[in-house]
């Protein structure tokens, strides 16, 4: 079973902000040489903001096994046979003792080695408190010898100025990119008591479920089977090449060799939804694993009316392909727009879809806000783009309000 899960598994709220990939295990070898490889350990460690070595060593201490790791090849091994559920249960212990704040139980912490060089504290970015680690545990000694990389520290006043400048720059950049497009065609606490989340959940509950037809007025997209078949044919023939190849990608190939159309056609031809492994192999084979347009194709072709469930299952692969690239994030949102345009029933569930994308850390908050600020005809008709953003308003309002509240809290801390 793949997909993201809550970092605190005792929290059942699906809107809980802090997520991590479900741990995977692969048993190799036989007899005395049997070992367990954890293929996604680096992704799990990254979501916890801890070095992979710390997590690997934890498993070694808790399971009484030798460990080995190679950061260059991203390979982490625990000797013996350990299934994923056993590793996941053990990881809960690591999270409780070395990640969660001792005061508010929030995972947004940073390990800080004290000046005496003998003690370690968890510096919580949520409540501001510092709580001590249990120095009796063997892993604490490992952390002292192998501390996490220090983040550049800034004064609160300089952080505020930087944040303001960053927002102004992003706002200008967003306006510029929106203009080019037209020319071309909160901190949640551990108990999930955050008022903004409660409000969004209530508003989302009042919306028709994803899959039910909503009255969205005049609709200009033909969603019949014949129209859908035509869309796929256009992708295959390269007729829709303007939407699948960006201007900065050279069009030195014949339409029939368009790798994006080939990927779309391959996905449509599968009897069942392809696995992440097969999908990634195909993308690598086509040589487009680093291209942002790949994310657009996946957004429109990989999902259907069950997108809420499918997004969580596909999150690890999408995270790998998107990385930290803003261009990739925008392309993925463009593909989602095209998907919604092709499935009228999804219009009512736009806030839920965006929330699922946000909760799985696929798109950054600033990118979502810039996307919602202005409609674009780059991926769909302008009137359809406006309708999608109008439907997204409950989510965008929550996002903006949560961000404003976070800034107010920062100002209050400075005043103190």
Short characterization:
This protein is of the alpha+beta class.
CATH topology of the largest domain: Serine Threonine Protein Phosphatase 5, Tetratricopeptide repeat
For the largest sheet, list the strands in their spatial order: 3-4-6-5
Number of helices: 17
Shape: globular
What is the second-level CATH architecture of the largest domain?
Alpha Horseshoe
Order of helices and strands: EEEEHHEEHEEEHHHHHHHHHHHHHH
Q: How much is the radius of gyration in Å?
A: 23 Å
Classification by helices and strands: alpha+beta
Could you please describe the fold and organization of this structure?
The chain has 2 domains: 4-145, Defensin A-like (2-Layer Sandwich), CATH 3.30.30; 168-415, Serine Threonine Protein Phosphatase 5, Tetratricopeptide repeat (Alpha Horseshoe), CATH 1.25.40.180. With 416 residues, the chain is α+β, with helices and mostly antiparallel strands. It has helices at 41-48, 52-63, 84-98, 138-145, 156-184, 195-206, 225-237, 241-244, 259-269, 276-286, 293-301, 307-322, 326-342, 350-359, 365-373, 382-391, 393-415; strands at residues 4-6, 19-21, 26-28, 35-37, 67-70, 75-79, 109-113, 120-124, 130-132. The strands form 3 sheets. A 4-stranded antiparallel beta sheet has the order 3-4-6-5, with helices on one face. Strands 7-8-9 form a 3-stranded antiparallel beta sheet. It has a two-stranded antiparallel sheet with strand order 1-2. The chain is globular. The longest helix is centred in the middle third of the chain and has 29 residues, at 156-184. Helix content is 52%, strand content 8%. Helix 1 crosses helix 2, helix 2 (52-63) crosses helix 3 and helix 9 packs antiparallel against helix 10 (276-286). Belongs to the eIF-2-beta/eIF-5 family. Residues 249-409 form the W2 domain. Residues 179-193 have a biased composition (Acidic residues).
């Amino acid at each position: 079973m793949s997909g993201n899960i809550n970092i605190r598994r005792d929290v059942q709220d699906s809107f809980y902000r802090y997520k991590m990939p479900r741990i995977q295990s692969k048993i190799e070898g036989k007899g005395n040489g049997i070992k367990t490889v954890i293929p996604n350990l680096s992704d799990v460690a990254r979501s916890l903001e801890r070095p992979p070595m710390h997590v690997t060593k934890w498993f070694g201490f808790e399971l009484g096994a030798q460990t080995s790791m190679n950061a260059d090849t991203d390979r982490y091994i625990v000797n013996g046979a350990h299934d994923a559920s056993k590793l996941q249960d053990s990881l809960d212990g690591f999270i409780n003792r070395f990640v969660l704040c001792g005061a508010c139980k929030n995972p947004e912490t940073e390990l800080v080695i004290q000046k005496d060089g003998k003690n370690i504290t968890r510096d919580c970015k949520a409540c501001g408190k510092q709580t001590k680690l249990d120095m009796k545990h063997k892993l604490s000694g490992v952390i002292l010898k192998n501390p996490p990389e220090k983040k550049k520290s800034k004064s609160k006043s300089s952080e505020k100025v930087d944040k303001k400048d960053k927002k102004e720059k992003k706002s200008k950049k967003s306006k510029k990119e929106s203009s080019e497009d037209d020319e071309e065609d909160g901190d949640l606490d551990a108990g999930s008591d955050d008022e903004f989340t409660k409000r969004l959940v209530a508003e989302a509950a009042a919306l028709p479920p994803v899959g039910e037809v909503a009255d969205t007025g005049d609709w200009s997209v033909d969603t019949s089977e014949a129209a859908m078949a035509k869309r796929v044919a256009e992708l295959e023939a390269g007729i829709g090449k303007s939407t699948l190849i960006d201007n900065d990608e050279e069009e030195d190939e014949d339409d029939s060799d368009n790798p994006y159309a080939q990927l779309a056609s391959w996905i449509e031809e599968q009897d069942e939804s392809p696995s992440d492994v097969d999908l990634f192999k195909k993308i690598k084979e086509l040589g487009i694993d680093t291209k942002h347009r790949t994310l657009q194709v996946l957004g429109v072709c990989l999902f259907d009316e069950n997108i809420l469930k499918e997004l969580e299952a596909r999150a690890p692969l999408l995270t790998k392909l998107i990385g930290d690239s803003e261009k990739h994030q925008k392309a993925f949102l463009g593909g989602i727009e095209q998907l919604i345009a092709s499935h009228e029933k999804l219009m009512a569930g736009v806030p839920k879809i965006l929330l699922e994308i946000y909760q799985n850390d696929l798109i950054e908050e600033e990118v979502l806000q810039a996307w919602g600020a202005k409609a674009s005809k780059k991926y769909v008709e302008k009137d359809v783009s406006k309708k999608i953003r109008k439907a997204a308003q409950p989510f965008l309002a929550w996002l903006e309000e949560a961000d404003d509240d976070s800034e107010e809290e920062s100002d209050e801390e400075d005043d103190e």
